[in-house]
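Chapter review: from sequence to fold.
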Amino acid sequence: MNKAASLLVIISLALFSVSCTKSAENIFQENNNLGITEEAEANDYSINKDGSTIKNRYPAPKGYLRVDTPENSFAEFLRNQKLKPYGDKALFHNGKKKNDSGIYDSVFDVDIGDRDLHQCADAVMLLRAEYLYTNELYDQISFNFVSGFKAEYIKWMEGYRINVDGNNVNYFKNAAPSTSYESFRKYMDMVMAYASTLSLEKELTSVEDVADIEIGDVFIVGGSPGHAVIVVDMAANKDSDKIFLLAQSYMPAQQTQILISPLDEEISPWYSLKNKDRLITPEWNFDLDTLKRF
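The C-alpha cell string follows.
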C-alpha cells in the first residue's frame, strides 16, 4: 500500500512501496478472459436488506448452514460486524462516495477518519485490533512497521509513543497511561501510517491447504502492487463444501466493504472456491496460496 507516511520510515523502501492499486484495465481484461460479464444474472438468493449485521443481512444460501463459531472468538466478532443501511455508499477519507457498481454489496459502519490511512491491509489490521481491544487482550495487539519495528499497544497504553526519524524508530514516554478508545485509535493511526501489506504478509502464517479456510483468514499479496481481503463469514453444505463472505478496503482510504462475488452470481456475495484455481474478486485476483492466518 503506497503511503507517504511509509516513505518516512526508510527512504530506501521507496522502490518497494506497497499499493492496493492495480490497473483497472488489467483487472477487467483478466476477468473478461475468465468469462465474467458486467451484467449479473438473476438469482434466487435473497438478502435481508433490513439486517444491520453481516450475520443478519446475509443468510446462508439454500443447502448451506453457517459454520459454528466459538463464543468471543474472532470469527464471531467478524460475522457480527455492524453494517451501514443497505444501499449506503462506501465513503472515502475525504467524504466522497465510492461507486458500488459491480464491486461491493454493503458497507461496514466504521469511522476511518479524514487521513488517507485506512486502506487494504489497514482494514484487516483494524478489525483484528478492534477484536482484541474489545476483549481486553491488550498484550496481543501488536503490528510490525515496514521497517521491522514492532509497535506494541501495551507500550502505547503505558504512555509510550513512537518516534520515527528516518531509519531510527523508538519508543519515548510522552503521555499518561490510558486504555481509552480514543488513545487506541491514535495507536492504530500510527500503525496504519507505517505498516502495509508488505509487513502484514510477513506477520501472518500461511494456510497450507485452502480447503482449511476459516473465518478471519486473509488473502494477501504484499508488494507493489499489493492487496488484502479478509474472510468475515462462512457456511458449508452437507458435503463440507465451504462458501464465505469477503471484506476489503482499498485505495485511497475508504470504508470497509462486503465484496460482490463475480463468479458466483447465483449466491453472491458468497464466494465458493469449488473447481477454481484462483480467487477472483472485483478489484483483485489472488492465487490460492496467498491465504494466511493470524
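Two observations follow directly from the output. The two ends are 19 Å apart (CA to CA). The helical segments are 4-7, 24-33, 54-57, 74-79, 120-134, 153-157, 181-194, 197-203.
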